[in-house]
Amino acid sequence: MNGEPPKAFNEQNSKATEMAETSREESVTESPCIRARGVGKTYAARSDDVEALADVDLTIHDQEFFCLLGPSGCGKSTFLRILSGLDSDYTGTVEISAARADGGSVTNMVFQEHGIFPWKTVLDNVAFGLKMDGVEKQRRHEKARTYLEKVDLAEFADSYPHQLSGGMKQRVAIARAFTNDPEVLLMDEPFGVLDAQTKRNLQAELLSLWSETKKTVVYVTHDIEEAITLGDRLAVMTARPGGVKEVLDVDLPRPRTRGSIPTDEFTTLRERVWELLSDEVQQSVER
Amino acid sequence: MSQSRRRRYTSPRKLGFHVAPILAVLLCWEVLARLAVVNPTFFPPPSVVVGVTGQLLVEGSLAYHTWVSLRRVLLAFFVGSTSGIAIGLWMGWSRPIRLLVNPYVSLFYPIPKIALVPIMFTLLGVTETVRVLAMSIAIFLLVAVNTMGGVQQIDDAYIDAALDNGAGTLALYRDVLLPGSLSEIFAGLSLGLGVGFNLIVVIEMLAAKSGLGYLIWRSWRLFTIQRMYAALVMITLLGIVFIYGVDALGDRLTFWEAE
After folding, report:
1. Which of the residues A45, A83, A209, B130 has the least number of beta carbons within 10 Å of its own beta carbon?
2. A120 vs B contacts (CB less than 8 Å)
3. What is the ipTM of this complex?
4. Beta bridge partners of A218
């Protein structure tokens, strides 16, 4: 075990800032943002050690929307926790570029549920990361309000999460992540428990925020259509121990709204992904 | 999660449902005592008890004993609950601290604390400090155990979210562990107060020259039964105000769990 927290490498930094000025089309280049090499993770259990991840090699580009797709229990959430630094007990190396000059965090996570605090108002939830960074109250609330407006929750700033629907709560979580302004957004099935309609709306909101802010996104999901709708590229993971089976480009035009996605290409890709995935799902069911 | 435990005394109608049965019993008692079906020497009619209570309060002796008991309970409650919350949070979060402290807590938790009072008197003398300390320990144990359990049941996602957003140790305690375990903390405080009131009465009966417990015991021995009831009324009132007051405060502060 030589687990180390993700390292930052600086040489990409100036380049990344420059590119942020240019347009979206040009900026999606091959400059790496996250490099994972031979990442493995084993959970020590009483009877038998469980190998959750084995030898994950993955390069995620700067400002890319990257989806991790895999059967349940394949370790995709584990991989995300390693990227976030919440789990530092792993083998292999993870490097994340773009160390922050302003001391803000490099990554920020959006959780499936329970990521926002029921005892804090919506506004305080959204401003929480900035508070932890020592940003003074007025400034952090100002910034939080900006993003609350972007996710259409401005009038709920003083409400508490229990007064909101599931979809609204996840919008609060997303607003917080964007307010923190990290280099990399890590999203762990953020819409997994929502109904189809709400999910679709939130996907659209997320895409629009993403194209505005040009963040690198690593998005974990088990929903093939979601991965294709959102991602620039997607990685299909193997059943436990999780590894990368194949990385696919999603060559669909953006902005991707309902109706704007070419049906044939979408279907072809979906079938291809399903084929890759079905073996793995079969395996994880049989085990 | 804890809906069944939740009491809401907000609407007057509901309050009526709680008070009416009690009033009915008191009324029966009044009638039976007046008709001398029960011996009014031992069971003086409630109206007489109320009169005597008021008279003794004005006269000052009852007010004095009430104040003495109240001060002891408040002191013990303050010491026991602050230390209990602090240690409970720490035990809940830190595994080493839990391993270090929990054996002692587990050992003392089930012992009826009153049984330890003679040892404490032996060690520290029959002093006010011991009277308060004995209660503090009982309250401490209940609050610490409940708080620890409260911290351990906090959803990991809240803790992950806090850490991922850059929370340091202090912020983690203040913004997540404390509010996340608040309803268990208040359950512990409420239980602790219950035990505290029990203990104060017994300790004052055994080893004090003041306080409501002392007054109850002495009045019984001197056969001044009405005084005994007056003291009983006061300890009941204190118990109701504090225990239900803490419950109500807890419900208010953990408003998000009511839904």
Report:
1. A45
2. 175, 179
3. 0.82
4. A66, A186
